[in-house]
Amino acid sequence: xxxxxxxxxxxxFDPESVHHFTFKMIRLANTVGLGGLFxxxxxxxxxxxxxxxxxxxxxxPVGLAAGFDKDAKLFKELSNIGFGFIEIGTVTPKPQxxxxxxxxxxxxxxxAIINRMxxxxxxxxxxxxxxxxxxxxxxxxxxxxxxxxxxxxxTPNEEAVNDYIICxxxxxxxxxxxxxNVSSPNTPNLRALQEKKPLTDLLQTxxxxxxxxxxxxxxxxxIAPDLANEQLLDIIDIVAITKIDGVIATNxxxxxxxxxxxxxxxxxxxxxxxLTQRSTEVIRFLAEKSxxxxxIIGVGGIxxxxxxxxxxxxxxxxxxxYTGFIYEGPQLIKDINKALLSKV
Length: 344
Fold this sequence. Notes:
Layout: H1 2-10, H2 15-31, H3 35-42, E1 51-53, E2 56-58, E3 62-64, H4 75-80, E4 85-91, E5 104-107, E6 112-115, H5 124-131, E7 145-149, H6 160-171, E8 177-181, H7 196-211, E9 219-223, H8 229-242, E10 246-249, E11 269-272, H9 276-289, E12 296-299, H10 305-314, E13 318-321, H11 323-328, H12 331-342
Parallel strand pairs: 3-4, 3-13, 4-7, 7-8, 8-9, 9-10, 10-12, 12-13
Antiparallel strand pairs: 1-2, 5-6, 6-11
Helix pairs in contact: 5-6, 7-8, 8-9, 9-10, 10-12
C-alpha cells in the first residue's frame, strides 16, 4: 500500500513539507488510538532477533538513523512501526535554523536524496525535555535511544569540543548511547574534525568525562563514506587509542558518480541507493583490518532485506535505515527482520 498508494502521493509534494506533514499524521494516528495498528502490522517480535551490543539489549537489529527525528518528537511512535532503536539528532547546544530552503531534494531515478539541512534543530535542551517522557531502562515500554551530537555552525573547530561536551552532559541521563557526528558535509569545516589529531583529542575528552560517570554510556563515531583507506586505518587506530565503543558507517557522501536525476548537482550529502556499495565496502574494510575489534552499525543505501544482510555479512552488527525507509516504507523493517529469522 505504501509504495503504490501513499508514496506517489507524498512524492508529489515538496520533501521537507511532506516530512513535517508525515510527522503530524503519525502523531495524530497515535493520539486517536491507531498507534497499536502499526505495532500489530509491522512488528516482528521474536527473541531470536535480539542483539546485545556494548552492554545494551536491542529488541531487533534494525534502527532508525539520525536525521529523521532530529528533535526527539516522535521516537515512541516510530518505535511502534517496528524499529529496534531510534537515533535522535544531530542536536547542537543552541537551536539553529539550518541552511536556507530548499535544502532537501528527491532523486527519484536514483532512489536517493540530497540534503543540505545544516543541523537544523531546536537545541539539546528541547530534545532533553521530550526524552524525559521515555520509560525507564528495563521497562517494557522503554525506547532504546541514541543521541547524535554535533557542534553549532558558528562555533569554530578550535572550540568544537565544548559544544560536544555540552550536548554530552545534557543528554547523558536520557539516551542509551552517544554518536559523535563529525562527518556531515553540511556544516562548514566539520569534516576537518575527522583528521587524526583533532578527532583523537575530541573523542578522548568525551571518553574521559564518560569514565568519571558512575555508569558510563557507549560512545560511537559516525564516519563519512568518502574517507580513503589510509584514513579508515586512522579510524581503527583512533578507536583503539580512545577505547570508544564502535563506529557507524556511513554518513552521506559528497560523491555524485553515476547519478541520473535532475537534482544530481545540488550541494549537500547524498544518501540512498547510490551509497549501497560504498558503505558496505567501508564496513568490510573496517571489520577485516581491525579483525572485528569493535562493533559496527551499518547504514547507507539499505532498500531491501538483501542490502541489510550484505552489510551484516560484511561485518556490521546492527543496521540503520533512513532513505530506504522513505522510499520503501515500514514494510522494509519487517522484511529485514523476517529475512534474519529465515537464516536462523
